[in-house]
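Write out a sequence, fold above all:
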Amino acid sequence: MQSALKLFRQLSKLPVALASIVLFALMVMIFADVMMRSAFNAPFEAATELTRWFMAIIVFLMLPIISGQQEHIVVDLTDSFFLQCLGRTHSRCHHRPCLWRHVDLACAPSAGVG
């Protein structure tokens, strides 16, 4: 049983390594695309499609590892914007972990309730 667990742990490093390589390739490709677009007005034609593929590869390679560790993939691109807009609400409800709960009626002032 211990050898099977050790083998599983070693094999679980493979998707992480592949996702890291793909992430590095994504970074290099985007940098090169921006440089080619800015300097020579000749962007890579397939950069948008490759970005989509690379992001899908990264997410789906890491999803089993993250799920096995009881974690979550979190994207918080708009959290800072909404937290600035909802500053007072956020200060009252800072204990809630999810942004969308900030707009919940439980966070709203109790005027007109009850």
In short: The chain has two domains: 1-72, 74-114. Confidence is low (pLDDT under 50) at residues 100-108, 110-114. Residues 1-72 form one domain.
